[in-house]
């Protein structure tokens, strides 16, 4: 038996995964698969169909076909047995037999196909052996990973021990009234934040530059563990070959996708011993024909004190919000003082704020269905044409005091119709064929760049382009609440402080 190729294709003959076992060009295999659906109606066969040069042996997989292309003189009984094994392999890697799932696990399927057939002839293997061969289970690799994890745990424990020693040395130096050499900015260098910082100082003293402590080197030792690099090299070679034939390959990044709502801004450059974070999260749902279904903004001021000399302080808050937010202070904060003077202070003025802990002192909530309060409006107009849909989508910044960064507007597009044709465009775009999403990327949207539009054409229906997902981050908050001054409880002398402000998206959908 000579097996020329094995492929998973749609009912229209579009190849999703195809593995050739003899030398064949891509054009040749695509032509054979494109002719396959037309030949199925010529006879009464339900498992195979023949042409002058090849034989197709096939099995339906819901909306797809598993197809083997063989020579005409091959043994049909062996072909059917091989076909059954191919069909049993696919559910091992794909939870559902759909085009997107097959594409997601295409390389796993190709590796499994290679275990079944070599150089056009079937190997004597069963399903369990194929699973074992593709997993490449290695005892030496497990031992190596266990040793490496142990080394990592020991390095982390050593790092924590060193950090405790440095903290103790700093506290001892402060008690004796001397400045410990080499510990400038230690309290702030250990802090990390997911938001941008705006440093506000009340004096002209030059702030200390934080010193970044070097992480302990991970112990390394020569390893004789099994190297699993052959399969990765085969994948790279296969991707390079596809690129050389003109195929657009989306290479997923190791980090987060830009369209994820968990985007973060750069950490602050410097922080004082009194540091505050003003954080807001927005959740919004709009209808495609207009109308705000729900909008909720949750905000909080978090205080962190790193020096016990600044533990007994008061925060002067400037509330310029005119949107009707609901404010709530921490139970230990003097609510009456905040209501009358907008000052955050502990009920017992003799007590200090907790040291080296993030304490939420004030939070607020805004929930509305007022369309005028939408910070960024998205308008999508899909209109049907003779060849599909012409889509015009535009944005407008309504809250002109905001500056939105790293804006990504993710528009669904139909699967299996190719890349959309882009017309007028403000900004940049990315087409993810695997996720069937067109991402419209805008670095900044502000008062100078408050409107923009994107036009594209693609086959589909108007309902195919919803829901639209939006994500962004901002260095300013939506509800205008700021801390303007920090002062000591005794004497009302000003205290140096730093502050970082951020607005992130929890959910922003146009349904």
UniProtKB/TrEMBL annotation:
Q: Which Gene3D superfamilies match?
A: 3.30.450.60, Mu homology domain, subdomain B
Describe, as the record does, how this protein assembles with itself and its partners.
Oligomeric complex that consists of at least the alpha, beta, beta', gamma, delta, epsilon and zeta subunits.
Q: Which terms under GO biological process does the entry name?
A: endoplasmic reticulum to Golgi vesicle-mediated transport; Golgi localization; protein transport; retrograde vesicle-mediated transport, Golgi to endoplasmic reticulum
Location of the MHD domain:
271-511
List, alphabetically, the InterPro entries matched. AP2_Mu_C_sf, AP_mu_sigma_su, Coatomer_dsu, Longin-like_dom_sf, MHD
Role summary: The coatomer is a cytosolic protein complex that binds to dilysine motifs and reversibly associates with Golgi non-clathrin-coated vesicles, which further mediate biosynthetic protein transport from the ER, via the Golgi up to the trans Golgi network. Coatomer complex is required for budding from Golgi membranes, and is essential for the retrograde Golgi-to-ER transport of dilysine-tagged proteins.
* Similarity remark: Belongs to the adaptor complexes medium subunit family. Delta-COP subfamily.
Q: Where in the cell is it found?
A: Cytoplasm; Cytoplasmic vesicle, COPI-coated vesicle membrane; Golgi apparatus membrane
Q: Which domain of life is it from?
A: Eukaryota
Name of the protein in its database record: Coatomer subunit delta
Ranges for region Disordered: 166-192
Which Pfam family is one of those matched by this entry?
A: Adap_comp_sub
Q: Which GO terms describe its cellular component?
A: COPI vesicle coat; Golgi membrane
What does the record say about its membrane topology?
A: Peripheral membrane protein
Q: Please provide the record's keywords in A-Z order.
A: Cytoplasm, Cytoplasmic vesicle, ER-Golgi transport, Golgi apparatus, Membrane, Protein transport, Transport
Keyword check for Protein transport, yes or no.
yes
Write out the biased-composition intervals (Basic and acidic residues): 166-177
């Amino acid at each position: 038996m000579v097996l020329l190729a094995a492929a998973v294709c749609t009912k229209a003959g579009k190849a999703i995964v195809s593995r050739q076992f003899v030398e064949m060009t891509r054009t040749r295999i695509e032509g054979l698969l494109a002719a396959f659906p037309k030949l199925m109606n010529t006879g009464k066969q339900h498992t195979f169909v023949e042409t002058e040069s090849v034989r197709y042996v096939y099995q339906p997989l819901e909306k797809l076909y598993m197809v083997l292309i063989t020579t005409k003189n091959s043994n049909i009984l062996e072909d059917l047995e091989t076909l059954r094994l191919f069909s049993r392999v696919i559910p091992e890697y794909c939870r559902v037999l759909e085009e997107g799932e097959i594409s997601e696990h295409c390389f796993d399927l190709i590796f499994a196909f290679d275990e079944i057939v070599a150089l056009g002839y079937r190997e004597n293997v069963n399903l369990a052996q194929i699973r074992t061969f593709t997993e490449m289970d290695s005892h030496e690799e497990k031992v190596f990973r266990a040793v490496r994890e142990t080394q990592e745990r020991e390095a982390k424990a050593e790092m924590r021990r060193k950090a405790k020693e440095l903290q103790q040395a700093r506290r001892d130096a402060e008690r004796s009234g001397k400045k410990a050499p080499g510990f400038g900015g230690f309290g702030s260098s250990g802090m990390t934040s997911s938001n941008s910082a705006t440093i506000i100082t009340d004096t002209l003293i030059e702030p200390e530059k934080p010193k970044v402590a070097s992480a302990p080197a991970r112990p390394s030792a020569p390893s004789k563990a099994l190297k699993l690099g052959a399969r990765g090299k085969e994948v790279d070679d296969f991707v390079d070959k596809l690129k050389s034939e003109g195929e657009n390959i989306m290479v997923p990044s190791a980090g987060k996708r830009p369209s994820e709502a968990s985007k973060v801004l750069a950490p602050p450059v410097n922080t004082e011993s009194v540091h505050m974070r003003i954080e807001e999260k927005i959740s919004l749902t709009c209808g495609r024909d207009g109308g705000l279904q729900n909008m909720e903004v949750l905000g909080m001021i978090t205080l962190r004190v790193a020096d016990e000399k600044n533990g007994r302080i008061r925060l002067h808050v400037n509330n310029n919000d005119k949107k009707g937010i609901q404010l709530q202070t921490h139970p230990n904060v003097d609510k009456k003082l905040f209501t009358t003077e907008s000052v955050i202070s502990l009920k017992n003025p003799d007590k200090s704020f907790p040291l080296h802990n993030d304490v939420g002192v004030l939070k607020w909530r805004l929930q509305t269905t007022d369309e005028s309060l939408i910070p960024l409006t998205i308008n999508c107009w899909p209109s049907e044409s003779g060849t599909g849909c012409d889509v015009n989508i535009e944005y407008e910044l309504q809250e002109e005091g905001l500056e939105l960064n790293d804006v990504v507007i993710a528009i669904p597009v139909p699967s299996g119709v190719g890349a959309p044709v882009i017309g007028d465009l403000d900004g940049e775009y990315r087409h993810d064929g695997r996720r069937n999403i067109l991402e419209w990327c805008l670095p900044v949207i502000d008062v100078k760049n408050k409107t923009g539009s994107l036009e594209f054409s693609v086959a589909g229906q108007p309902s195919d382009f919803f829901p639209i997902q939006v994500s962004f981050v901002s260095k300013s908050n939506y509800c205008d609440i700021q801390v303007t001054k920090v002062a000591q409880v005794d004497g009302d002398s000003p205290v140096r402080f730093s502050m970082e402000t951020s607005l992130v998206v929890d959910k922003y959908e146009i349904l």
